[in-house]
Amino acid sequence: MVVSQVALRESLPADRRLLIAEVFHSIQGEAATVGWPTVFIRLTGCPLRCRYCDTAYAFSGGQWREFADLLEETASHGVRHVCVTGGEPLAQRNCTGLLTALCDAGYEVSLETSGAYDISVVDTRVRRIVDLKTPASGEMHRNRLDNLALLTPHDQLKFVICDRSDFDWMKAMLVEYTPQQRCEVLVSPSWGELEPGRLADWLLADQLPVRFQLQLHKVLWGDVPGR
Q1: N or C: which end of the chain has fewer CB within 10 A?
Q2: Burial of 52 (0-12, 13-18, 19+ CB in 10 A)
Q3: What residues have CB less than 8 Å from 181, skipping those under 6 apart?
């Protein structure tokens, strides 16, 4: 007998389950652990609609899964790095419990979040990678700017730049909030929209204290879901 998703959800412990879009094993393409084999746990759902989003397939659907099941699948890949992502993972309240469970299991855990939710609720062992939304994303109004004061040297702040206006806005944010004094700041071009060399030239010309990055997984495999 096929059990419906609704019935399955009701059968699971309320604080030990999450709606999961996908779990996959790949190369980390961004941030501090770039290049490391990593298990990605992608949660379903996101209240944002960034115009360049490459994971719209995770807005809905997915399967309800228990923490124990997710930990078992993660262990099967034999890695030490785990990235919890979305969608917007913190949109699911139980995400914080999974993050803590992964840390307790000994993994090096990172969280990719838009920063639209309070990051203070996240286990301090987790590296929080906050993607501050630029004007061209269409979701700048979602930025929870109080999060910037919560960043630590263990975390990273990320800007995806679509055009020169985004770049100038980022510079203004660096002056006003000085996040670069709290953590490493990452800057990347919007894939297929801004030529990477142009962004690199702007960074060099303005001598900004930020780290340029490309999405390594897209360099390797293109814009393919689950890679």
Answers
A1: N
A2: middle
A3: none
What confidence score (pLDDT) does residue 225 get? 67
| Contacts of 175 by beta carbon, 8 Å cutoff, 6+ apart | none
Q: Report the alpha-carbon distance of residue 158 to residue 30 in Å, rounded.
A: 10
The predicted-structure confidence for 155-214, as pLDDT tens digits, reads as follows 999 999 999 999 999 999 999 999 999 999 999 999 888 999 999 999 999 999 999 998
CA neighbor of 215 nearest in space, from 84, 39, 27: 27
CA distance 86 to 32: 18
Side by side, which strands form the sheet with 156-161? Answer: 63-66, 17-27, 37-43, 81-85, 108-113, 127-132, 156-161, 184-189, 211-212
User: Could you tell me the two tokens for 80?
Assistant: 């030490």
What is the full DSSP assignment across 48-69? ---TT-S-GGGSS--EEEEHHH
pTM: 0.88
- Give the Å distances, CA to CA, from 64 to 76, 85, 110, 154, 193: 19, 16, 21, 31, 35
Greater confidence, 40 or 218?
40
Question: How far apart are alpha carbons 98 and 42 in whole angstroms?
Answer: 12
pLDDT digits (tens, 9 = 90+) for 103-119: 999 999 999 999 899 99
Domain layout of the chain by residue ranges: 5-221
Which residues 6+ apart lie within 8 Å of 107 measured at CB? 74, 79, 80, 81, 82
For helices 95-104 and 67-75, give the axis angle rounded to 10 degrees.
40
